[in-house]
Amino acid sequence: ALYKEKKIVEATNKFRQGFRQFEDEISGLKKDSLNDDEYNEIILLGKKILSNLALCFYKQGNYPQAIFYDLKLLKNHPNFGKSIVRLFKSSIKLNKIKLAVEYGELFLKLDEETRNKFKGTENQIKEAQLKLKKIEKEEEKAKSGLGKYFLPFVILCIAVLGYYLLKKK
Fold first, then answer.
1. CA-angle at 27, arms to 36 and 62, nearest 5°
2. Phi, psi (5° rounding) for residue 4?
3. Contact between residue 54 and residue 8 where contact means Cβ atoms under 8 Å apart
4. How many CA atoms lie within 13 A of 25 on its CB side?
5. Of 91, 89, 52, 98, residue with least CA distance to 72
6. Three-state SS annotation for 4-38
7. What is the pLDDT along the chain (169 residues), one digit of tens a residue?
8. pTM for the whole structure
9. DSSP letter, residue 1
10. Cα angle vertex 53, ends 50, 57, to 5°?
C-alpha cells in the first residue's frame, strides 16, 4: 500500500523491517518440519520481500542497495527476470557498463517467455554492448598510444640521469 501511494521511503523501511523479520524466522525453521507447500510459500514470501526492497531502492536512485538485494535474491532464484533487469539497469545508472553487459547477457539466456515480459530490454542490452566495445577500443587505443611514447621517455630519462651523474664526477 505504501509503495502504491508513492511513499517509497516508508515502503523501503517496511520491507527492510519485514526482511529482517523474515530472516530471523526462517533461520529458526527446520525444512523437514514443513510440508512442501508451506516451505515453497515461505520461499515465495522471501522472494517478494527482497524484490520489493530492491525495487524501492532502485526507485530512490540508491542503485548500490538495489544491486545488493537483487544479488541476494538471485542466489536462490537465478532466473528471476525482474532482478536481472534491475541489475542491468542499476549498473547502467552507475555507469558500470561492463557489469551491465554481464547482467544483460544473463538476461539473454532466460527463456523467451520471461524475456518478452521486458519489452525494449534487449535493445538496451545491445546499446550497452556497443558502448562497451567503444570503451574497450578507446582503452586499447590509449594503451597503445602510451606505449609508443613510454620507451623513448625512459631512454631520455636514463640519458639525462647519466649526463648528470657523469657531470658530477
1. 105
2. -65, -30
3. no
4. 11
5. 52
6. CCCCHHHHHHHHHHHHHHHHHHHHHCCHHHCCHHH
7. 777 777 889 889 999 998 998 888 877 776 677 788 888 888 898 999 999 999 999 999 999 999 999 999 999 899 999 999 999 999 999 999 999 999 999 999 999 999 999 999 999 999 999 999 999 998 888 777 666 677 778 888 888 888 888 887 6
8. 0.79
9. -
10. 140
Residue with cell 542490452: 125
CA distance 83 to 53: 11
Buried residues in 9-46 as b, exposed as e (16+ CB within 10 A): eebbebbbebbeebeeeeeeeeeeeeeeeeeeebeeeb
Residue count of the chain = 169
> Amino acid letter at 111?
D
